[in-house]
Amino acid sequence: MRSIISGWGYSPFSFDKETICLDNMSTLNPGLVISGDLSLERTFRFVNTLKMKNRSLPVLIISGDYGIQDFIDTSLFDDIFFISTPVDQSEIKMAIRKIQGNRLKSKIYQDYPLLIGNSLKMQKIKKMVLELSGSKETVLIQGETGTGKELVARAIHFKSDRRNSPFIKVNTASISRESFENEPLGFNPGAYSNAEWNPKGIFKVADTGTVFLDHMEKIPASLQAELLQVLDTGSISKLRTEKKEPVDIRIIASASADLGLLVEKGEFRKDLFYRLNVIRIDIPPLRNRIQDIPLLAVFFNDKFCGDLGKSHFNLSKKTKNMLSCYHWPENVRELENVVRHSVLTGDEDSMLNKLCLPDQRLKSTNHIDCSEDIYTVAELSDVKKYLKDLNEVSLKDICREFITRAEKKIMKQALEKTNWNRKKAAILLDISYKSLLNKIKAYDLT
Q: In the chain, N or C terminus with fewer CB closer than 10 Å?
């Protein structure tokens, strides 16, 4: 490959491992990275770390694993490309020329957020981000503290046609009545996150951009009506005058508490809730997307290795399994801090010691072990052989086979975990008791 690419006028470098390549990225500053046939998990890790270092760096993946295409489709990047094997020289040459041409036309932002995770729930969120790129509808993002609500909000902004305009974060818990009533003066364009700004002034500065209203569950009840008026009218009024000044902004709000429940308790205005809850994104806690934990741990490991100038290294399988069994009450933010401590000390075992909990707390009984990749759960390596001749097996048959294998394996795991207590297993799997009995019979689980 290196010899062939050299003949096309490029200067290629090749590496046996991703970690060695990552260690040399800053020195080489390449125009394109070509990845060979890696496992799904290694591909996720490699691409995410490359993008963390340089958002505008295009990547070409040459692989026989069709699952990688699903990852690319929800990556939120337009410059990751896939060629299935077997492949000939002309395809590679054509792909490289196309990628180089596209790179001259596109503009990638270095602060474009990375949404790490390939669980079904995260794939759904990424698809929603893509679907929202062409609209200006208000979005409400709900999720526990530390799940990444602001990251999703930034992804929506940077994927939309408002990316060239400001993204302003407002801590609504810090807004006072005085800030609503005072005339905005002396704005500092470099301090968009300053929560002491007059909200109406913020909307003016954010014109054609996005305003992110954080901690909406904490906004004082006395100010909810004023905020509703600004949102409803789409304009701001100037002090001592009736003149209205229209603004073109997109509102993205977030809350760590369920605003719907606060409405029922009378602690949040129903009309304001409906104004914010046009499109809703619920971010699951980390304990409910276990298969993303190893991916996130590896990502943070690579991030801090790069930040500290240390060589990239692989986390052991034992560490990944232990991290996947912990319940993470502070979610992704807690995982990030644990990994940072490990890289700083240079001791992988300290990552587990940092949790400061006895071993039995790590073995949480609140979930089954789905830490392995969903493709492994469904034994995709075996299913892939069906893809060699699509004339014999339809896509519908392949999907049915995939789902059957995954369901059977996870249900068996749940039954074993509950010592075959079917009622407890049904609760664990979040399905009805009758559905569980039917599936046990259908899958001949004994």
A: C
Measured CA to CA, the distance from residue 285 to residue 296 in angstroms comes to: 13
Nearest to 411 by CA among 380, 364, 368: 368
Give whole-number Cα distances, 6 to 11, 60, 89, 91, 104, in Å: 6, 17, 12, 16, 21
- At position 68, the amino acid (one-letter code) is I
Over residues 65-85, the pLDDT tens digits come to 877 887 888 888 888 999 988
Strand 235-237 to 244-246 pairing? antiparallel
Measured CA to CA, the distance from residue 332 to residue 303 in angstroms comes to 14
Specify the number of domains making up the chain. Answer: 4
Q: Does 273 fall in a domain?
A: yes
Kindly tell me the sign of the dihedral angle through the C-alpha atoms of 234, 237, 243, 249.
negative
Q: What is the pLDDT of residue 357?
A: 45
Q: Are residue 156 and residue 199 in the same domain, yes or no?
A: yes
CATH number at residue 399: 1.10.10
pLDDT for 383: 53
The amino acid at residue 108 is: I
Give the per-residue pLDDT at 78.
83
Tell me the CATH number at 78: 3.40.50.2300
Contacts of 265 (CB under 8 A, 6+ apart): none
Say if CB 429 and CB 414 are below 8 A apart: yes
392 in any annotated domain: yes
Tell me the residue range of the domain where 392 lies: 378-442
**Domain at 224, CATH number:** 3.40.50.300
